[in-house]
What we know:
By secondary structure, chain A is mainly beta. Chain A has strands at residues 5-7, 10-13, 19-24, 31-37, 43-50, 53-57, 65-68, 75-79, 88-95, 106-107, 111-115.
Amino acid sequence: EPEVTQTPSHQVTQMGQEVILRCVPISNHLYFYWYRQILGQKVEFLVSFYNNEISEKSEIFDDQFSVERPDGSNFTLKIRSTKLEDSAMYFCASQEPGIANTGELFFGEGSRLTVL
Amino acid sequence: SQQGEEDPQALSIQEGENATMNCSYKTSINNLQWYRQNSGRGLVHLILIRSNEREKHSGRLRVTLDTSKKSSSLLITASRAADTASYFCATGPFTGTASKLTFGTGTRLQVTL
Lengths: 116, 113
């Protein structure tokens, strides 16, 4: 069964360092998302991406964050200069196109980011 | 309260019993979805109910939606230990296009033998 894959599963970084989290969405999907979940809290929307551009972003998604789909398969989230409060589980999700899109999101297993 | 709040926050039941979780939301929706998250894992879609539907079934799951009260409930019948997880409701404004979901705070379900 097709699935969304994310790497790395866990990354530890020093405050101020750049981090890139990678995702391979399901191949025929066209809508892509990043969410994050701080330990013990709710899942929060960061950004949606369609047709090679950001569709919508939340207040959390400030200038330190960027997304890219560099090669038609990978979908990356970059945090330019990490802060302690960026420590969270980051989930990538994708969604089917057109009439097949029921609204369901398909999530990856997440990348846990720990900022020290 | 925030968009998508579940209650109870935690629920502990014995295997075989039914589990009911509730979700309230604030804004108009196109659909409401329920997701399960096993500890430390990703979210798995369980069921979606559209705003013009009142009840939906999928296996041991039954979801109801009351748009007048802006609330939904998820019933898991004949629970199993494997149902132990956190359950989140999520509301979405659209289908057929890029549409972010807004997740609730979740109910942690513990099913004991």
